[in-house]
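One-letter codes give the sequence; the integers encode the fold. A sample entry reads:
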Amino acid sequence: MKEIITLVFPITVDGHEYAELTMRRPKVRDRLMVDRADISESESEIRYFSHLCEVSPDIIEELDWSDFVKLRETLQAFLVSRQSA
């Protein structure tokens, strides 16, 4: 399952415009990959989102804060959602 996040404030990185990002559901290995890195909590979160959205960390770093919050909300929705019976 994937979720498309439409950016309120599109960004341009290396000549490519990003108006939306697609985030996939996280797996335990995604979190472990980030937790094993010796980096700050902020850098860890950026790396986690870049991995889930399959984009460079540079793209996540350029996001407007309100769009970054949308990534957090999408991740949270993945974590609390349950598959329909």
In short: The chain has a mean pLDDT of 92. The first strand starts at residue 2 and ends at 13.
